[in-house]
Specification:
Number of helices: 10
InterPro entries: Homeodomain-like_sf, HTH_TetR, Tet_transcr_reg_TetR-rel_C_sf
Shape: elongated
Pfam family, one: TetR_N
CATH class of the largest domain: Mainly Alpha
Largest sheet: none
CATH topology of the largest domain: Tetracycline Repressor, domain 2
Order of helices and strands: HHHHHHHHHH
Protein name: HTH tetR-type domain-containing protein
Keywords: DNA-binding
CATH superfamily of the largest domain: Tetracycline Repressor, domain 2
GO molecular function, one term: DNA binding
Structural class: mainly alpha
């Protein structure tokens, strides 16, 4: 058997990457068209992507695998944004941060809706979905504890409960806002969310 050359290997890798992108794009288009993830079959994805079943399963384990990989771009965007997370920088900076969060979520709305839907019945997606929120919750907790140690946040604040409420509750609020608002209220929403975080937790009056 003739050995595989570097050029052949590169060509195969390029074709494989193109196939993966084609399948992911197909699912993205179906979701953008308003189809519910639970109603989209593998066969529907195959037809949209114009690939065979054998080709599909050579690259993906299931349609859930396609969805999880499709969220990688969203995750990378949010992770990059998280590097700018400075909760103690003040409400104005928090408002700008949340505006960016809403913008990113709006750009990936159909995928986020699918992930939230699938997370309700698929533990793989649920683990993937909650991992980032758990990390953000931990960051918020540590920043609250740090501010408490510095005397900036009142000591009577329960930092564990507060971080859970503002992070997990905030995620629910953002998801709902995007569903019911056309984008014109994003700035006001981000401002109010920032004010709630700032005055409700980070700089809540002692004994409030």
């Amino acid at each position: 058997m003739r050995p595989v050359t570097r050029r052949q290997a590169d060509h195969h890798a390029a074709r494989s990457a193109a196939t993966v992108a084609q399948v992911m794009s197909a699912l993205q288009q179906l979701l953008d068209a308003g189809e519910a993830f639970s109603e989209i079959s593998v066969q529907r994805i195959l037809e949209e992507a114009k690939v065979s079943r054998a080709t599909f399963y050579a690259h993906f384990q299931s349609k859930t695998d396609v969805l999880v990989r499709l969220t990688n771009e969203l995750r990378e965007s949010l992770l990059a944004l998280a590097q700018e997370w400075e909760p103690s920088a003040g409400p104005d900076r928090l408002a700008q941060f949340f505006e960016d969060v809403v913008r990113i979520h709006r750009a990936h709305q159909s995928v986020i809706t699918a992930v939230r839907e699938a997370a309700a019945y698929d533990s793989t997606v649920d683990d993937f979905y909650t991992a980032d929120l758990e990390g953000f919750d931990e960051n918020a907790l540590q920043s609250l504890l740090s501010d408490q140690a510095a005397g900036l946040t009142p000591t009577d604040l329960d930092a564990v409960a507060a971080s859970r409420i503002i992070v997990w509750g905030g995620a629910q609020a953002i998801a709902h806002h995007i569903r019911v608002d056309d984008g014109s209220g994003d700035k006001a929403f981000a401002r109010e969310l920032a004010q709630i975080w700032w005055h409700g937790a980070y700089r809540r009056p002692s004994g409030a």
